[in-house]
Q: What sequence folds into this?
């Protein structure tokens, strides 16, 4: 299944609107600060930001178009009912119009159907509503530059979620907060627990929640497959296979929700701390590479696992599809690495070479760009997998006042 809607006429209208808006924006930029005309890098940077905004508008159009088509479908049905009840004949033109309405509806897929999850999660095939999130809280914010995804699950002992959210919010200024959306995805189906976590977030971060900075979602209970039927892979225990397979599906659910919300997506975890102004640093880095015409798929701001991985929201469908296909096979960060290898490495040429690993790594580094020093650090010691101790630290993250602040919150 593809991810684009086949609506040529509507697309032409959209492109015309975007072209007009772009011209107005360029004129506004030139008049708002004439000094920028002499600052090529500043103008290029703003054009790169505008490019991302246009990309976001295009994706919003594609996703919202289903609502329009549902209205068309409803109108067509009502029209047929009226014609039948009046027992009158209609002209060929009107009949052709009614047929065209129905065909246009058939051409459109639902927003979630942009991702072919049904082949690999067949229990969802006849229940598309299982993919719809339970919105525990949302301020309705979208069209932001940065969307931060924070998956969380119940931990048997120590939890770090509130400390992580406080740290992330406190390390953004007001401008950065208004340009961001933090999505907390509670990967649990126990409604009492999800309501408890939601209440705690609202209680501890009232300003962030009330301003629309934080969305809180959970999956439908029927979203997950039967984890007792998973294949045992990599020689792992059944518990570990179930844990990492569910974690992958949590990533998928979170990314599908976040994809239309902004220009860039950043994967975080529920046990991290960040450096001050991380938002501005990440956004500037991405826009500068776009302005310079440098190819990239991932900007990596933390060397550990899936933490701090930044992507264009428009690129998320590729990763979502890849994880869905292999969610039972490997952990999510391994799948990300495998996808990058698939995109970058020439196996036919390199596999017979003794320098394969080095050559492949060089190609991957061109689209998976690591930022130094790291902007995020892992603080958790107990994994969400029962009994697993996780002591990994990113050596490129230099301890700052923010780590001290989070330790103070924890009472250390």
A:
């Amino acid at each position: 299944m593809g991810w684009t809607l086949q609506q040529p006429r509507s697309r032409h209208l959209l492109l015309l609107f975007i072209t007009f808006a772009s011209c107005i924006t360029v004129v506004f930029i030139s008049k708002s600060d004439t000094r920028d005309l002499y600052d090529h890098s500043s103008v290029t940077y703003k054009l790169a930001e505008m490019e991302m905004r246009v990309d976001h508008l295009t994706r919003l159009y594609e996703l919202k178009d289903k609502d329009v088509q549902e209205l068309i479908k409803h109108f067509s049905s009502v029209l047929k009912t009226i014609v039948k009840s009046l027992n009158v004949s209609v002209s060929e033109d009107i009949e052709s119009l009614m047929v065209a309405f129905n065909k246009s509806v058939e051409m459109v897929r639902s927003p979630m159907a942009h991702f072919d999850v049904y082949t690999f999660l067949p229990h969802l095939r006849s229940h598309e509503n299982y993919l719809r999130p339970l919105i525990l809280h949302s301020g309705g914010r979208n069209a932001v530059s940065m969307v931060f995804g924070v998956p969380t699950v119940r931990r048997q002992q120590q939890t770090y979620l509130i400390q992580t959210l406080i740290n992330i919010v406190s390390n953004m200024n007001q401008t950065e907060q208004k340009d961001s959306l933090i999505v907390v995805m509670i990967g649990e189906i126990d409604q009492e627990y999800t309501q408890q976590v939601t209440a705690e977030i609202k209680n501890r971060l009232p300003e962030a929640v009330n301003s629309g900075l934080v969305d809180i979602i959970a999956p439908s209970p029927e979203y997950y497959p039967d984890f007792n039927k998973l294949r045992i892979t990599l020689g792992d225990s059944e518990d570990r296979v179930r844990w990492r397979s569910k974690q992958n599906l949590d990533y998928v659910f979170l990314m599908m929700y976040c994809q239309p919300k902004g220009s860039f997506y950043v994967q975080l975890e529920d046990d991290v701390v960040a450096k001050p102004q991380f938002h501005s640093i990440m956004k500037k880095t991405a826009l500068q590479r776009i302005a310079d015409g440098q190819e990239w798929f991932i900007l990596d701001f933390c060397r550990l696992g899936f933490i701090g991985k930044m992507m264009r929201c428009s690129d998320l469908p590729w990763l979502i599809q890849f994880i869905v296909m292999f969610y039972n096979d490997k952990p999510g960060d391994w799948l990300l690495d495998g996808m990058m290898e698939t995109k970058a490495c020439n196996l036919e040429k390199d596999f017979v070479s003794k320098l394969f690993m080095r050559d492949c790594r060089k190609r991957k580094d061109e689209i998976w760009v690591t930022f130094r020093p790291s902007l995020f650090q892992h603080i958790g010691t107990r994994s969400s997998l029962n009994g697993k101790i996780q002591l990994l630290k990113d050596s490129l993250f230099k301890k700052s006042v923010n780590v001290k602040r989070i330790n103070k919150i924890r009472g250390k």
Summary: The first strand starts at residue 134 and ends at 137. The chain has a mean pLDDT of 78. Strands lie at 134-137, 144-152, 180-186, 214-218, 262-267, 272-274, 298-300, 309-312, 368-370, 376-378. DSSP finds 14 helices and ten strands in the chain.
